[in-house]
Specification:
The chain has 261 residues and is mostly beta strands. Helix content is 2%, strand content 53%.
Amino acid sequence: MPDKTAADHSVTFSKTCDSSTSTTSESLSFEPDSDKNGGKSSFMAPDDTAYYKLWPGAQAPTFWSSLGTVSNIGTSSETVEEYITLHKTKSGTLAKLPVSGVSYLWVGSHKGDDTPKFDGKNIIFSVEMTGMLYCTYEAYCDNLEITTSTSGMILVTAEKDSITGNATIDFTGTSKQRKVYLTVKDACNKEVLADVAVSLRLAESDPWESIGTTDTKGQLYLGELWTGKKYKLKMTLSGYIDSNKDTIKNDEFTISDDSTK
């Protein structure tokens, strides 16, 4: 449709505690969901939603925010991959709390003759080790949505028994409108395509809004669109797969502050 090193060992060990019943993590950690946020670090009230992940998940913490609301929309299990640097040490620390077990392998050579034991986030050796340890495991996280009707910097906290965590979220973003023109081309031969029907929407739950069809130059004026917002795009033309059903990543775009597309 149109454009727009080697490892010498591997094994899995079960950790000695169960993350479903134990909060062995020292703190609750907020992490922005870059995919859902579209790469944004600043949000606009009241239209935007800030998407965050809270690690470890499945702890049922209590949330508080200085502005707006925090909603926990559910817990998910995600695969974590990380490299642990060890230098003359008997211990290391994983970034997340594993659900059940950890798979590891040494990258290249290493010094010391021992296998790691995993206890929660802790990596334990009986002798000093030096090397690069690659670890993979499953970890729970809670998926959060933060919204506010008032512009400002927001403090969000999470508490569960003796562990806590907090994050500062920027809801001071501003937006302006820019005139946007779309040019549609064939993905294979790059020729411009006329009579392509184009529709837009902001959210998955919004109905598609028909904008019009491209002219003989393959162009269409989309209107004055808001910068910093991610728009969903659908293009249809007889003889082509609908753009929202093909495998080409041409289904959404964001208008930057300093350019017209």
